[in-house]
Design brief:
Layout lengths: L21 E2 L3 E4 L16 E9 L9 E14 L8 E9 L2 E5 L2 E5 L3 E5 L5 E4 L6 E9 L12 E4 L6 E2 L7 E4 L11 E8 L15 E7 L1 E6 L2 E5 L4 E4 L5 E6 L4 E8 L9
Antiparallel strand pairs: 1-2, 2-18, 3-4, 4-9, 4-10, 5-8, 5-10, 6-7, 6-9, 8-11, 12-13, 13-14, 14-20, 15-18, 15-20, 16-17, 16-19
Length: 271
């Protein structure tokens, strides 16, 4: 398996600035080709680390989550990574290795390692290797529900989570669900969705869940609202609620993406 990550760098002067980058009322596409060095930022409490901010809560658009691509140089990391005590998170390691502590427990993570961190978790993250480490980091403020305790931390790996095929697809469309979808303690799901070559979403999904979709592997033509957009590894799609979407996997290898969605809570009745 491969896990795409922003390429960084800077194109030379012979390159055209044309790309699939677009921002609309319903969706945005931030292709890998624009995820360059000059759009990174740095975070308080982190050392030798830079971040591509791909999504943030935006009024009137997608309002529930932030999504980062985090690059830790050798020796980079943080003992105080999360400033918001109410924030939960998912980490997916794209390349390199990194050492995670949660409370008294230590984990050495590798490409494909997946971590769920509940709100108020006591965690640290350090790159103890001599090469950079790339991590996808999704943050969401946890919404409590009466009678339910917050979830516990989870550390697992892509290889250890089976793919569940969608009905009547013969495995052409499958999802790895790292969290039990019936566990209502969770108010977000971050899954990996896989389409075999030629696999499709055979209708325009239209629903209340917001999405962040980061293409990890393969290519597809993706329907966003009324527009078909070709996507490749490293492209990020950012969808507000009720943005229609569908997919046709192209190419000779599986098409895989990391998918965020908000779930399992009543809709607030005030703005």
């Amino acid at each position: 398996m491969t896990y795409a990550f922003p390429p960084g760098g800077l194109p030379d002067q012979s390159q055209s600035p044309e790309s699939t980058a677009v921002f609309t009322d319903a969706y945005a596409v931030i292709p890998a080709s624009v995820q360059r060095d000059i759009v990174t930022s740095f975070l308080p409490g982190w050392s030798n680390t830079r971040v591509w901010v791909l999504a943030r809560p935006l009024s009137g658009f997608a309002e529930t989550f932030a999504q980062y691509a985090l690059e830790l140089a050798p020796g980079g990391g943080s003992d105080t990574p999360e400033p918001d005590i109410d924030a939960q998170a998912v980490l997916l390691v794209a390349h390199g290795t990194v050492r995670l502590t949660i409370g008294q427990d230590t984990y050495d993570l590798i490409p494909g390692s997946y971590v769920y961190l509940p709100p108020a978790a006591d965690w640290t993250l350090w790159n103890t290797a001599d090469v950079p480490c790339g991590i996808h980091w999704i943050r969401k403020r946890y919404v409590p529900a009466e009678g339910l305790q917050p979830p516990q931390a989870l550390v697992t790996h892509d290889d250890d989570v089976p793919k569940t095929a969608m009905p009547d697809t013969d495995g052409a469309w499958a999802t790895q669900r790292f969290i039990d979808p019936l566990d209502l303690r969770h108010d977000m799901h971050v899954n990996i969705v896989t389409f075999q070559p030629g696999g499709v979403i055979p209708f325009a999904e239209t629903h209340v869940m917001e999405h962040g979709l980061y293409v990890l592997q393969g290519t597809a033509d993706y329907l966003l609202n009324r527009d078909w957009v070709p996507v490749v590894p490293g492209d990020f799609m950012w969808l507000r609620a009720f943005c229609p979407q569908a997919c046709v996997a192209t190419g000779a290898e599986p098409f895989r993406y990391l998918l965020y969605k908000d779930v399992n809570r009543h809709m607030p009745l005030t703005l």
